[in-house]
Q: What sequence folds into this?
């Protein structure tokens, strides 16, 4: 398997000028990183730095959005994609499905489906789903049948499953429905949240560590990387949106959505 990390602004001590040092993660053996892009309608405060610095360090990148239940999944998808702009990263965009449901307007997991379908529509790139066995066991079920719809197996799974006793090369995460029937029941596994943050370049004591379920060559294929025919740079890249302007447009979109309730 291939090791990687995932990060957000929580790996950065705001009282110091330095931020995440991704070169240290590479030296520790990390080959990929999932980076928090957004949550609900807000941008992760370290996203811009993390996105560029991780690429400069040579890591394969994937961006994730933490879904909240109190805002349209369509709107959250559009905000997420707007922030990523024309640089989607090398790995699939991710729906982080783990927030507590506190009086949601959305039945069961329709919010998640809204988000996933809209992201793929906008980016033409199949997104991935991040969740844990416990959370999925509650929120992954069909509201009416109480079963797990087969449609979810279309998306690759990044599963978060921490173990009290972890044995490298032996331990495996729980297999979730409906991915059990897939050739590989999970694509990425977040196996701990107490990795050595300092050693991996974070300012936080701990850091999330992950495995890719396959070899380095398989990961490159999954990321669409061909060493013999690398992608040509875009001669006319779309400029990233001004963050202040983006926040203003996001707030206006949220206000307009709220008026429809």
A:
């Amino acid at each position: 398997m291939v090791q990687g990390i995932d990060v957000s602004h929580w790996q950065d001590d705001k009282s110091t000028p330095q931020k995440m040092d991704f070169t240290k993660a590479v030296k520790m053996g990390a080959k990929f990183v999932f980076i928090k892009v957004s949550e609900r309608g807000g941008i992760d405060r370290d996203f811009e730095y993390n996105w560029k610095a991780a690429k400069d360090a040579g890591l394969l990148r994937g961006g994730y959005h933490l879904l909240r239940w109190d805002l349209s999944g369509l709107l959250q998808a559009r905000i997420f994609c707007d922030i990523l702009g024309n640089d989607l990263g090398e790995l699939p965009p991710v729906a982080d499905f783990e927030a507590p449901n506190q009086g949601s307007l959305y039945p069961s997991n329709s919010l998640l489906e809204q988000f996933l379908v809209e992201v793929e529509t906008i980016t033409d790139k199949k997104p991935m789903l991040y969740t844990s066995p416990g959370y999925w066991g509650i929120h992954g079920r069909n509201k009416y049948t109480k079963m797990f719809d087969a449609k979810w197996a279309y998306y690759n799974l990044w599963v978060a499953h921490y173990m009290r006793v972890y044995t490298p090369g032996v331990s495996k995460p729980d297999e979730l429905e409906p991915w059990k029937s897939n050739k590989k029941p999970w694509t990425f596994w977040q196996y701990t949240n107490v990795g050595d943050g300092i050693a991996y370049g974070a300012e936080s004591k701990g850091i999330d560590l992950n495995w890719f379920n396959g070899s380095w060559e398989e990961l490159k294929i999954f990321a669409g990387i061909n060493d013999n025919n690398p992608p040509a740079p875009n001669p006319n890249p779309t400029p990233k949106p001004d963050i202040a302007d983006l926040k203003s447009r996001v707030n206006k979109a949220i206000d307009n959505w709220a008026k429809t309730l």
Observations:
- The longest strand covers residues 188-196.
- The helical segments are 22-27, 47-56, 73-84, 110-123, 133-139, 216-222, 243-259.
- The CA atoms of residues 95 and 129 lie 5 Å apart.
